[in-house]
Model the fold of this input.
Amino acid sequence: MPNNQQPELLNNFNRNISDFTKANPEVKVVGDEAVFDVRTFQALLAGGKLPTVFYVPFTEMQGLIARKQIADITSAIGADSMVSRINPSVMKVVKDSSDHVYGVPIQAYSMGLLYNRDLFKKAGLDPDKPPTTWDEVRADAKVIQSATGVQGFGSMTKDNTGGWVLTTMSYANGGTIESADGKNATVDNDATRKVLEFYRSLRWEDNTFGSNFLIGYNDAMKAFAGGKIGMFVQGADAYTTLVSNMGMKPDDFGLAPLPQAAQGLGALGGGTVAIINPRASAAEVKAAIKWLEFVNLRKYGSEPEAVADAKAKVADKQPLGAPALPLFDQATTDRYLGWVKDYINVPRQNYAGYFATAQTLALVPEPPTKAQETYGALDAVVQAVLTRRDADIDALLKDAQRKVQAIIAAS
Done:
């Protein structure tokens, strides 16, 4: 639950409890301020102090399932429940190999290719036909830079973001950074090598990668919002930050699915999952799912709730209908959008390609062990390729392989 430092969120939380318990008088809801912290989470579990409902990142799920540390909630999910309608690619994150369900995703994102539609127009490119392959990305970057003088392509490179994007692009080319069980580094692979060769080509052959190679998240976002970069890989949920907070024109924001090689695994994705304490009784599990649906999902199943939420967002000058990974299947998503169509205030037609693949492009979770430390080790690899013409990619990957394996061992 929110704390006293978040009065508006706390008031909303308490209002939800009041409304929920009026409709479900047999259920008692007690708030808990505990939040996920990798340093204390396992102690909460081991000590039996985990709240009945707790929120964890996507990256935790497969390990928790394998260790049987969370409740199997499969039998408590009704066929007509909102949980049963969640986007199948998202639900994979909370399932085991037998299709049993161990959590409720409440928020999700996937990585995509962001591009400036205005720069595409100025370069003579069709903004409604963004690149679908990495070769096309390279070609369009050349055209943009030649026609407009603006850097054609860019990437974040520091504060773990360089490794984050390198991992994203490795997935799209068919490789991983760690094994699925998180026990082994897999950095030194052909897909990651291919991504680094792609970077080298744009930087040293095409000169379309700019000249600053110490770029963090905010640096890249500000540059893109200011029309100084034609394309870059970023979370598809970046619209609000770029448009509402940084002043980018809504019609200039372009989003395409992350290009996939023939052997591509999908798009890196993340988000938040609600898990249930394995010690919870069957009645508590059922009540917890009912609570989660009420608090997080009801607007997708009720037109009055959807409209009320939409009106509130628009009144608060928040974007409604901004691109994000749909949490629900296509039918539920389309129904919700129909309910709120009169309130949508973003040009959704500009992201048609992204939405067309959102239900089918596989969502690949982040590395399961020490993802942020792993990304940090990969930052140095990205920076080396972009700052040294003679960088030895094979040697860099071998060194990164050793470093990531050491990070895993230390965990």
The chain is about 45% helix and 10% strand. Strands lie at 53-57, 104-116, 151-154, 229-235, 253-257, 267-276, 363-365. The longest strand covers residues 104-116.
